[in-house]
Design brief:
Elements: E1 3-13, E2 19-29, E3 33-37, H1 44-51, E4 59-64, E5 67-68, H2 73-78, E6 80-83, H3 95-105, H4 112-121, H5 137-149, E7 155-159, H6 167-182, E8 186-191, H7 194-200, E9 203-208, E10 211-217, H8 218-225, E11 227-234, E12 251-253, E13 258-264, H9 272-281, E14 286-293, H10 296-309
Parallel strand pairs: 3-8, 3-9, 6-7, 7-8
Antiparallel strand pairs: 1-2, 1-4, 4-5, 9-10, 11-13, 11-14, 12-13
Bound molecules: adenosine-5'-triphosphate.
The site of adenosine-5'-triphosphate has 12 residues, from helix 1.
Length: 314
């Protein structure tokens, strides 16, 4: 892996006593889209803020293309663009002036052709002379991205890029992020939306209560943990599950009209043929069988529940 960013043993305890991160290790590969997934308060923003040098870690190190994020703050920070959750711009300023100002903050000036390219990519070029206050919510978000890209960073962080955004705008944002990656930018995004990670990411990290409980390629994650479910629609509703069916750990759904069987599609024995034989033996008729794949959401819920059971909680 061609590592562009390395986080090693990073912990953070705020002055209030809250420990937001517990010894996080993470390497990001050049050119990947990495989604950091976690519930509210899991520590996502804290981790991003540490990487961007906004928050100082209590322990551990962060290096961006070999530059230490604390000791070589300027060199490291220059390589990173941050799109924050909240709008942080002067509402009376124009789009073009806002983006140019951000570029100058990083000691870069000129290169108007680059700024024009960024604004065109974000469909903001026609709005370059509009004041921020005149823009729609979606456009304002794109201005935040333009600002973050203004100094030509190698890595772009997006903190909840689509929070509170409607479905079509969310899809536009996904397309845009893919285009940025195709141009060579490494993308790290935080999200609550499993759908977003599922749609976009090459790799997914799951963070819960300050611990990175899993980092894995999305495809492998879904294969490894992907369970399938089979829903059996019964001819006659069932009050309770007969003890003869105990070994399949079935659940009754839809007021006893359906039986739910969760199985591992990757295992040699799914248990389906024997279950169907047993149903026939017991004279339990069914009208329909439906199988479906579990989503990343099911996996995530399982993982967080598992973490709790194993005492991952701080
Ligand atoms: N400046 C701060 N001072 C004290 N505690 C903080 C500070 N910032 C965050 N925290 C605490 O650290 C924990 C992690 O917060 P963080 O904002 O990193 O989580 P998050 O995963 O980004 O959450 P969300 O998805 O809600 O944005 C929380 O318990 C939060 O209350």
């Amino acid at each position: 892996m061609d590592t562009i960013l390395s986080v090693s043993g990073v912990s953070k305890t705020y002055g209030s006593g809250t420990t937001a991160l517990h010894s996080v290790d993470l390497d990001i590969a050049k050119g990947e889209i990495f989604a950091l997934l976690g519930p509210n308060g899991a520590g996502k923003t804290t981790l991003i803020s540490i990487i961007c040098g906004i928050v100082t870690p209590s322990t551990g190190t962060v290096t961006v293309m070999g530059h230490d994020a604390i000791n070589e703050f300027r060199a490291a920070r220059r390589l990173v663009g941050l799109v924050p959750q909240e709008l942080s711009v002067d509402m009376f300023e124009t789009v073009l002036a806002t983006v140019k100002f951000s570029r100058r903050l990083f000691g870069r000036s000129g290169h108007d052709a680059y700024i024009e390219e960024v604004l065109r990519d974000l469909s903001l070029w026609d709005k370059r002379d509009a004041r921020i206050m005149e823009l729609s919510g979606g456009m304002k978000r794109r201005v935040l991205i333009a600002k973050a890209l203004s100094h030509e960073p190698d890595i772009l962080f997006l903190d909840e890029p689509t929070a509170g955004v409607d479905v079509s705008l969310r899809r536009d944002m996904w397309k845009l992020i893919h285009r940025l990656r195709d141009k060579g930018t490494t993308i790290i995004l935080t999200t609550h939306y499993i759908e977003e990670a599922e749609e976009m990411a090459d790799r997914v990290g799951v963070i819960d209560k300050g611990k990175l409980i899993l980092v894995e390629r999305k495809a492998e994650l879904m294969k490894r943990l992907g369970k399938r479910q089979m829903l059996i629609s019964l001819q006659e509703p069932m009050g309770t599950i007969p003890p003869e069916l105990e070994e399949w750990h079935l659940e009754l759904e839809d007021e006893g009209k359906k039986l739910l069987y969760i199985f591992d599609a990757t295992s040699e024995r799914t248990g389906i043929p024997s279950l169907l034989r047993k149903l026939a033996e017991l004279g339990i008729g069914f009208k329909d069988l439906e199988t479906s794949k579990s989503s990343l959401e099911d996996i995530f819920v399982d993982l967080v529940a598992q973490g709790k059971a194993e005492g991952v909680a701080a």
